[in-house]
């Protein structure tokens, strides 16, 4: 297919790379504001789907006062890279989040992203919102099982056809026609399950590293031929929210952006929202000054570790990882990996288990050499090649020294 | 001058300048690059952080020599086609004459100087192909290096304007999928780590290249007896007068 080839070459040079525009100009935001206002008014007039809970009341019941809620709203506005004037709109959108039906499915995964929502100590606003959005189907959370669960899913798809947002957690095993993973009483393969539900969705949100890039199941040797959602689902808007687990703030951010504007946020070349994945962890890291100074933790518990030195020599992958952990942290700013003294393992990048998570500097890591197959580090490979060249040169030099003399004797 | 020999110019002043600038830049690039990959010496822990800027200086040095490499590469690329001295591209084209010369020089190396059926008064096809490999490796280092560099310019701003990160993205984003193809993966999605791995691995290829290059020039000097090593310093070497007739 020459057309495809031309397209793929074109895409090499027009990749929507990680450039982030934090200020798009007065005119743009005025227009967007009007658009959001109209959208929220329309949603307000609609009845909430499913249960008739009032989000404001639920939030108050969970012990979050109005002031905290507004603090959250302004922080979320900033996270979404919108001007401060959007704060009231964001707060309003949060209370209207149950107008958008959500179906959440699990594929080949550990349910870690659902766990991230559920297991936080005292739910934060992000988690509360994700608890009370109109979650029509969620295998881990719902009471019914077997045929009843399937019935519920069918009903939800029928009722909200073309309107629901499909959240996918977990990778898709492509090996042996997808039979590594089946679900339900009819033993549907994950591939069928996903493509069927994606067809009727308004948009697909892949949550966590598995659903986005294959994650841990896709790590070498990838026995199930695990792939991310974007390599299986065609012709649907897809948003990737990688990380292991994905930050609930970013899940809410994407959903909130959809409620607020009726559109998905701006994405980069890996379909990640730029508001969350536009910046490198390294560039907003609280330990960055120690990196520049050359102050590194040399081993766990040493003087450097006690002084919060840079974790680069312990294998921190902050310089190679795009995510907003270092800005918004986890659990509403409580802490994050580098903050607790562990290096970043690059969990939001493709192939993270093989290429990022070895907790050593890259130069000491066992990564696949260009020769493929055998696992050995680039440095060992390079040194091996250098030794081979050295031996070759040595042999040649020795042979030349002997043969060269003979040659001279012959001439003389 | 020894009788029966004549002097031939092989490198112009500009070429020698580029050679030694590259020599210096490469040592700095490798020393600082290895530190950036895995900091191999420690800073004094008792010294206040404001006084040390070790990683930052290493990165600064690495980027400065990278920019110098950029500029010399552009000059070299120009000279490949438009030099008024010798146009190296003419020696790289796979013409019958070049292929014959390439294998003649290769045979000279393999047979330990037993056969020497080519004109050694000008730059030969074998050496020019070898230099071209170097320049391609270097070009790959420049593109992957600039890709790694632009990761720190997420805002699209730089001290010299927004055009520079934009240009870097346009010129180097293709290295991500190409590095991915070189490095390989089990998940199938290209990552910026592939660029870093490839950048690091290519350093070793260049070191291997340099080792053979130095060996081969010294070997030529010893066995050809034409003072080849002097080319890089004085710009000229010597060839036997009667050799001229042979070619």
What does this structure look like?
The complex is a heterodimer of chains A (412) and B (247). Helix content of chain A is 43%, strand content 8%. Chain A is α/β, with parallel strands linked by helices and 412 residues long. In chain A, strands 2-1-3-7-9 form a 5-stranded parallel sheet, sandwiched between helices. A two-stranded antiparallel sheet of chain A has the order 4-8. In chain A, a hairpin with a 4-residue loop joins strand 5 (182-183) and strand 6. The longest helix of chain A is centred in the C-terminal third of the chain and has 34 residues, at 378-411. Chain A is globular and about 95 Å long. The model of chain A is unreliable at 369-375 and 407-412 (pLDDT under 50). Chain B is mainly α. Chain B has a single domain (5-239), classed as Transmembrane di-heme cytochromes, Chain C (Fumarate Reductase Cytochrome B subunit). Chains A and B meet through strand 8, helix 13, helix 16 and helix 17 of A and helix 2, helix 6, helix 7 and helix 8 of B.
Quickly name the level 1 CATH class of chain B. Mainly Alpha
Query: Order of helices and strands of chain B, N to C?
Result: EHHHHHHHHHEH
What is the CATH fold-level name of chain B? Answer: Fumarate Reductase Cytochrome B subunit
The rounded distance between the terminal residues' Cα atoms of chain A is 67 Å
Proportion of residues in β-strands of chain B: under 5%
**Largest binding interface between chains:** A-B, 79 and 60 residues
Main sheet summary of chain A: 5 strands, parallel
Low-confidence stretches of chain A: 369-375, 407-412
Instruction: Domain count of chain A, please report it.
Output: 3
Specify the CATH class of the largest domain in chain A: Alpha Beta
Determine the oligomeric state from the structure.
Answer: heterodimer
Identify the strand order in the major beta sheet of chain B: 1-2
